[in-house]
Amino acid sequence: MTNTQQLDSLQDCSHKNHNDCLVISFGGYSTKGDKSENQDAFALKMADGIDLEIKGHAAVIADGLSSANCAAQASQMSVCHFIEEYLATPETWSVKKSAAKVISSLNKWLYSRQLIADEKGLSEQWFSTFSAIVLKGDRGYVFHVGDCQIVKINDDGYQALTKDHATVSGTLTRALGADSHIEVDYKTTSLAPQDILMLSCDGVHHFVKPKQIKQILKENSNLEQASKVICQLASEQGSQDNLTCLLINVEQLPQQAFSQLVFTRLQQVIPPALRPGSKLDHFEIIDVLHQTSRSHVYLARDLLVKKLVVIKAPSVNFTDDNDYLSSFIREGWIGDKLTHPAIMKIYPRLATSKFLYHVCEYIEGQTLSAWIRDNPNPSLIKVRDILEQLIKALRVLQRQDIIHCDIKGDNFIIDSDGRIKLIDFGSCFAGAIMDNTVGLASDKFSFNQGTLNFSAPELFYGQANNHQSELYSLAVLVYQMLTNRLPYKEINQLDDAPKHFALWRYHPIKTFRKDLPNYLDRVLSKALAANPTNRFEHYSEFIAEFNIKDKNQLNVQGNLPLLERDPVKFWQGMSGVLFFILLSVLFFK
Q: The domain 366-558: what is its CATH number?
C-alpha cells in the first residue's frame, strides 16, 4: 500500500530557457510495513512560472503518532493543509513567514480537535510529526517538528538537516497537535546541481545506514524505485513501523540574472519623453508632473474608463541599466499587491503593451514635505492624526512582509481633507523577493536604499532594514513635522555618520518648540534611539506613548529631573553654576 501524492516532474518554464528554472525530479514510496494501518503521509507540490520564483517547490512528510487514535488523519491533514495553505499565503511573504504561519495554524487546528472531543465526552488525539522543505532559488528552507528526517546527499557526504525531538528512550518531546503552541526548528541550506534530498520517517532512517542509502542511489537512477528499495531494506533490517521515503534530485538551478517577472518586462520598450497631448496606449497625457534624469511622471486620462491616472515611466537614460529597471519593475509588482485606502494603487499593467511604465492612482494633494514647509508649527493634535495614518499605511506593508526602506515626507501625499497616502514603492523589498539569492546585486541589502537623514543608525553599520528601522524613519518624519528640523546632526554622505551608537547626539525637541509638552522628548528620544535595542519594538508602543493624554501621566513626566525633561537647559544651568563657583574661588584668592 502506498500513501503518496505526486505531480508531473516536468516543469513549464514558460517563455524562458529551460536552464533558467529550478528543475527537480523526484520519487517516493510509502507502505504500512508490519503495522495494520499506514499512519504516514507525504506530498510534493511543484510550481512553475512566477509561482516557482515566489513560492518554490514544497515537499512535506508527516508521521502520525501511534499512541494517538487519530494518527492517520493527523498526518494526512498535516501534509494536505500545509501544501494548500502555504501556496495560498500572500505572494509578498517570505518562505519563512509563510510556512511559520501555516504550521502554527495547522497545529492549533489539530490541538482544537482534542478540545472539541473532550467537550463531547469523546477521546481523540490528533498528533503528528512534521518535516517540510521548500526549494526556492538556490536554497532549501527546512521546517521540522518530531522525528522524521530531512537529509542532503551529495559528493561531500550525507548531511542531516534535522534533529530528532525525542528522548534517549525514543519518547517524542515535540509533535503537532500536542499543545496550543509549537516550537518549529528552522534552517536553510544551499542547493547545488545533483544534490539529493531525502525525507523519511523514523521507521526508515533509524534502520538504514547512510552508506547503504548512497549505494542504493548509485544503483537506482529511478527515484521512486530507489525509495522503495530503501523502505524494503529498513524492513529487512528490523523496522516494524510504517515506511516512507521521498527522494528529490536537484537537476538544475536558475542561471538567469533576472527573475521571470523582470525578464518579461525588460522586453518592453521605455517610452520616450512625452508632451501634453501625446498618447501612450489608451492614455492621453495631460501634463508633466515630474521629470528628472531617472523618471518621468505624467498626469493622464484613461480613455477607456474616462478617469485621471498618473503614468510613471523610467527615463530612457536607463535603457541599459538593468539594476535600475529591475527596481522599477519590482515597484510595480509590489504596488499591484497592495490594496488599502492609505496606499496609492498601482493598477495591473496592460498585457499587450510593448511599453514599460506604471499606471498609478491619481491623488490630488501635496507631498508631506511640502505640507511641512507650509505648516512650520503644526498643532500636536494634527501631528497625532497624521502619525496614526502613517502607521496604518506602514502596518499594511508589515502584514505583507514588505519593508519600505525610504520613509520620508516626499513619499506621502496629504490631500485637502488631511488624508495621507503612501505613493512610492521604489525602494521596497518584499520577503518573497528577498528569499532569492539568485538575482541582481540590488536585490540584496546594501546601503543604497533610503535617504541618509531618515535612515536608522544601525544601517550605517551593516545591519539590514527591518520594521524597527522603519519605525526610526517614521519618528524622524514626526520630529520633522513638529520642528521642521532633524533630530540629529545632518548627514550629507556616508562618512558623516557617527562611527558608533554612543556618538549620536539627540537634539531635544523642546529646543525648537517650547510650547510642546515635556513628555514628547522622552517618547521621541526612545523612538529615535541610535541603538535599536533601546528603541520601541512596535508601532503600537510608539503611538500609545505619543498619545498620552491622561493628566496623571503628564504630571509624572513633568516631575522628571530637569536633566531628562530638558537636557539643554540643565547643562546651561550647570555651566552657570560652575562659572559662578570659579569666579568665587578666584575672588577669594
A: 1.10.510.10
